[in-house]
Design brief:
DNA polymerase, domain 1; 56% helix; 0% strand; mainly alpha
């Protein structure tokens, strides 16, 4: 049984410095966030972290959309 990939690991697959896509921009900014919980795979923990520290995230809807994509990828 393979270990569940963390949200951060998934998010890094969405990075694209040349893209204007909101999830790509989120991924680009999270890459530079030294405190991002890189091993987390829990929605509530990540949501709380981003609400308190994600000044680079203009809307939590972007996180929700990225989380949905992550869940689809993991299933």
């Amino acid at each position: 049984m393979s270990k569940r990939q963390s949200f951060y690991q998934f998010l890094m697959t969405e990075r694209n410095p040349d893209s204007t896509d909101e999830i790509a921009q989120f991924a680009n900014n999270a890459f530079y966030d030294q405190s991002f919980p890189k091993q987390a795979d829990d929605y509530d923990l990540l949501s709380q972290y981003l609400e308190l520290n994600g000044t680079y995230l203009p809307s939590m809807v972007i996180f929700d959309n990225a989380w949905t994509k992550y869940e689809e990828f993991m299933s």
